[in-house]
Predict the structure of Ribosyldihydronicotinamide dehydrogenase [quinone].
Amino acid sequence: MRKHETFKRSHSPKSALIIYAHQSPSSFNAAARDVAVQELKLQGYEVVVSDLYAMNFKANATWDDIIGDLKNSELFQYGEETMHAWMEGRLSKDIVAEQHKVKEAELIIFQFPLYWFSVPAIMKGWIDRVLSQGFAFTLEKMYDNGIFKDKKAMLSFTTGATQTMFQPDGINGDINVTLWPLQNGILHFCGFQVLAPQIFWGPAHCPPTARAAMLEGWRARLKRLLAEKPLTFAPCELFDLSFEGGFLLRPEVKEEQATQPHGVTTGHHLGKPLPPDNQTRARTTEEEDPGCTK
């Protein structure tokens, strides 16, 4: 096993990483970041912040991310080339620095304003470049079998819309659907235990007292954050993980799920109503786990 594949900590302090993307130091996102830094430090965490705009982090994924010759210069495939470069220690310095932060962190918080139902471009560039194949996932190590299964991650973000606008009957549609590509397709795909998102609904349209209350609510949540249960996703054991089987739900699982009132998850809805708050609230111990069969 190469040293790049070893995620054992070499020192005792707990470590948290905040990936932060906002242009203004006086923004609500900056205030939310500062609350997280303060509270986590009080809990004994060593907190590292990657301020992407201040770092002028390069968002576009190009062959400049690879030091030395390409494996296939005639047909450049970013994923394949960066995987080989990671294995051979030939990724650019800025990517290596961020991967080191990820490797050290037990908790990662993505702090950002919601742009076009997703993360800002500079944060998407961080995801594209830093969470490279080999380092963050392989075809054998993904989802609940993923490389980062011993780490926790979460989204903390502001919206320009009200909470009602992101309800199932709201103009923007169900926030659970909005969050599925980010939380399942990125965080859970890499194996992270995904904590429920911290959503600050429309702070720009709220009075100062309401914004202060939002931040105090965030501070209170941070005090118990690591004791929270993660969100529920469909375990890999429910699927036929082979190309012959199409990576589909096993027939016996589909048969058992046929009697359930909801789909398995937001994404695995099976043509049924979505399980309520699947991407915004962790399941309590009293609730049935829709991702497991008995």
Remarks:
- The chain has eight helices and six strands.
